[in-house]
Design brief:
2 copies of one chain form a homodimer.
Chain A: E1 3-7, H1 12-23, E2 27-34, H2 40-54, E3 59-63, H3 66-70, H4 100-115, E4 119-121, H5 137-150, E5 158-160, H6 168-177, H7 200-212
Parallel strand pairs in A: 1-2, 1-4, 2-3, 4-5
Helix pairs in contact in A: 1-6, 6-7
Amino acid sequence: MKLAVVLMSGGMDSTVCAAMMLDQGYTVAALHLNYGQRTQERETQAFRDVCDHFHISQRLEIDTQHLQVIGGSSLTDMDMDVAKADLDSDEIPTSYVPFRNANILAMATSWAEVLKADLITIGAVQEDGSGYPDCREEFFRAFEQTIRTGTALDKPLLISTPLLYMTKEEIVKTGIALGAPLHLTWSCYQNSAVACGECDSCALRLRGFERAGHKDPLPYS
Amino acid sequence: MKLAVVLMSGGMDSTVCAAMMLDQGYTVAALHLNYGQRTQERETQAFRDVCDHFHISQRLEIDTQHLQVIGGSSLTDMDMDVAKADLDSDEIPTSYVPFRNANILAMATSWAEVLKADLITIGAVQEDGSGYPDCREEFFRAFEQTIRTGTALDKPLLISTPLLYMTKEEIVKTGIALGAPLHLTWSCYQNSAVACGECDSCALRLRGFERAGHKDPLPYS
């Protein structure tokens, strides 16, 4: 039995990732991080609901405030406004948490080493166009080299990024085809009750559903 | 003015690192992590004392429990015994926290990106002989590549490891030559009041002082 540690935020992308890994026959160990993001509680609820749906028993929720303490991002700094989406902009948005994925992958690697997992799966999407440097192929390959040199493993621990070159439209279609519980997920950066529909994350999600020809099951304000 | 983020545990090695960076004309921003280690409070006290001594005003203490939650190490798992030192063994000791340095460097990089620092300095010592894979040159070079690919920086952010090829004897001598406050540092993995003298960390420190021809200013049980 092959084991994948899947990073699951409770959002649509990572839920589709989990569905893909399960579909490929992996046992999934689900890792969820609370790093002080604005919609933390709502995301954790979504994570638990999705894990219940998939009958994933091996779960770990980690609370860590360090990215919030370090600051510099509107995702974690409550004094910064979440910018409204500009999907055509080349600028790195204020929701960027410096080196966030490296922090997340470092935690995932520590857990994967303890579990002797085969893979770490992260639902990064390059097409988001948001310009996050730690969402690029070369970053993940560099991180794998860091794992190879920095762990005491008998077999290589790889990072899989099944969504990296998918569009949101393809992600929606894949999720629906695999029966992923998209109605249980949460993507909004701004609100916890009703999704705002205006932040980067909402805008990308809504456009993905629209292009896929499906209606997003979540309510929007 | 060049800025170095120096990882400072409150131990001897990282204190000597800070002394070396200050001696080289860097402004030092001091980063201390509480990750659930057994002697956390004692180490934090040592960190503050050392920073006060050096008049370092830019300090960040981060509490993160994730390495403890993940477990697998006698440094953070209170149900595991801290092994007595066997400095001639090739085995990875039970005090190994999986991928610890990667987690630490990821946090340091996030802060360094916010501060626009020039360097991250970490007091890793390969000679410790404890076989930690994330204390090797190739690991640090791989991590630099991860930084290059995963951050949005205008200039390269490098990792300096000034102690990597030094013996403990040389570290003691360097610290004394630079006037580093070794009497304020704490190295013991086991105890917080009087150092045990028997854990890996104590054994290496004591041997270093002995070979340097100096007496360790700390009391031992």
